[in-house]
Amino acid sequence: MGRADEIALLSASGRRRGGPTADIRVICGPGGIGKTSLIIHAVEQVIARFPDGQLYVDLQGYGPNPLTARHVLGGWLRDLGMDERRIPAGLMERSREFRSIMSGRRAAIILDNANGEEQIRALLVASGRCVTFISSRDPLGGLAASLRLRLDGLSVTESLELLSRVLGRERIEGEAEAARQLSDVAGGLPLALRVLSGRLVDGSQPITSFLGRLARQRAENRLLSEFTFGDLSVEQSVALSREHLTEPTRRAFDLLGLHPADEWSNWSVAALCGCSLMEAQELTSALCRAQLVRTKRTRVLQPSRFYLHDLVREFARGQATRQLTRQDRDAAVIRLASAYLAMADLADRAVHPSGVRHLGRTDAPRYPLDAESEQLAITDPFGWFRLESEPLAAVVSRCRDIGAWGLCWELSDACSVALENLRLWDVGARCAETGLEAAERLDADRARAAVLRNLGEIDRELGAKDTAVERLEQSVDLFKSLDDPFGVIDASSNLGLVQLRWGDPQAAQERLREALDTARGIADTRGVSWTLEILGECAALRGDTDTGLRCLREATALFEAAGEQRGQAFALLNEALLALDDAGWTPGPCVGPGSGRTRDVVEAEDAARVKALLDRADGVFRELGDVRNSALVAVARIRERIVTSRDREARALSRTAKLMEGFELDWRLRGLLVHCDAVLDHRRGARVSAVRGCERALVLVQPFGDRLSMAGIRLHLGVLAQDGRRPAEATGHYRAARELYRSLRREDGLRVCAQRLAQVES
């Protein structure tokens, strides 16, 4: 039956020193999890320890007619040989007689299916060498147990073993993948596995075709109907647990069936149920004790997260449909969505406190939050968005389903900045596309303008240049028609970034200058500081060090004054990158004499400043949980070691960087890291490895419009081809690099390419 560790714990001999006198072992878990089977199996393993036998009773604690302790004791006293006429009438007297008889015996007492402490207190033996095993859906925290074992679902291996015992090992091995999927559908619940295997035992259909039926039923929210076979029923088991809840807790359980997220925290339960946070915590605790809600492990000091087993969730959803009116169900979802919007607003403002991106996101309701919940969003905004990203997308989708269009687009907009910076493109795109549908349903230009800008940002970061330009241009025009200068500034700056990457840096600079003038004219601190930061990147891309430094340092000061740490860190990081380029990282690939300044000069003038800038930026990014930009800092640190000829340190940093979370799914960043390794390979004479690295880096970087990096990699490939005596190939790479430098108006890059081409042609 599996559960070897649990059986070992349950059947271990002796009581812990200093523990309770009675040896009471509690096994708790949801209905159908296999508590009874586990106890019986564990007792059978050590049956020799109980020479005086076993006493077993099914207390039917969750049935319509639970047994009373008085009734159980009457039967046990008869079984133990007491004359019917001498059995006391009262509960306490019967309990006293029972304990007296058992005090000198070694027996196993099994109290199965208990519904609470009150049902079993009189049945407990307080001394002697008896062991009492209790199964319950409640953890029975009021008992001084020597062991309390909480059962969760079976592992995949254990699930497959259970299926094998019913359906035969040969059949399970013959449809191994289908059997694994079947165990996933059951979610590790032994009762569900017994039902499914019972339905398949006659061999009339393959497991694969049965899975197809289950998938169709799941799509129609009828999956639970498939989990009944004979007298076994998952639905009946869950229903019994629900019936023993108080009325407020039953209502909370039903409402949780409406929660669109796969997991949640108590603040969202408070909104869903329309109660205080403290009341929500009590309701969740009661549902956890009833084994209907499960707790997901979180990091230390993080609020607990909760979820429902898929089958329990479907049952709760069905109860909500039957017990609540459509109006009440929609009202609960709107409370929940408005709470997510209130939390997202707080977290969004914490991410960029220097001002608004646009006007007009104020019509949808905001749920009144308690101070404790607000702190979750304010203290760690990126952490909150990362944790709630999928729930946010699910809530946005649910708002669409019920036609709550205002909540739909405002929620999608409130999470756009954080999802972009967390590189959660799929989630961000889903939210934004739904937000755009909401804008169309509302026929609201304010919503259209904001959501088109958000989609344009996503397109830009995913390398979809043409779509990004189209959407951002529409956004700028809409914001202008709405007389929303904040929106115009933000959308124009984003459009400038697209032009910077794929178009003309000079044209980008002109657009950004226009946005800057507008921002200064209305004293828009956020617009001024972010536009200056992008202008600094623009100047750096063109090789204009003085202008770049001036813009970035002014942006840093403004961000610092406004308390916008993230913007300040961006500006510091870009100043460090500009200093590294000036020290010799660009335009040459830092692989040979003359590619950069000398080591002594670089160390004296730049290394300490670059390190200080990177340390400050990285400290902020780590505090904010911005893993993507922490990864970019790591690349910058490797470059700093390379330009100062500390190759061994650079390699060590590269090995560490590859394990960082920020490189996941950010192919441009990974390409930059790969190119660093290629430079190091070239410098140690591993030319073939260096060529492969450059080619891979180019493939990773190219879709994202990073022309300066592409030019450097092309130039590097040209050097490698030239060293390998392949002049035609070298010429091709140098010319490609030259065109990229020309598009950027980089005179230094053009000079290097001209020198290299002259060497090859001579």
Structure description:
This protein has 762 residues and is mostly helical. It has four domains: 4-150, Rossmann fold (3-Layer(aba) Sandwich); 156-235, no CATH class; 444-563, Serine Threonine Protein Phosphatase 5, Tetratricopeptide repeat (Alpha Horseshoe); 568-761, Serine Threonine Protein Phosphatase 5, Tetratricopeptide repeat, CATH 1.25.40. The chain is built from 36 helices and nine strands. Helix 3 (69-79) packs across helix 4 (91-102) and helix 30 packs antiparallel against helix 31.
Shape: elongated
From the helix content, strand content and strand pairing, which structural class follows?
Answer: mainly alpha
The helicity comes to 55-70%
Mind telling me the CATH class of the largest domain? Answer: Mainly Alpha
Count of β-strands: 9
Superfamily (CATH H level) name of the largest domain = Tetratricopeptide repeat domain
Treating each run of at least 4 consecutive H or I residues as one helix, how many helices?
36
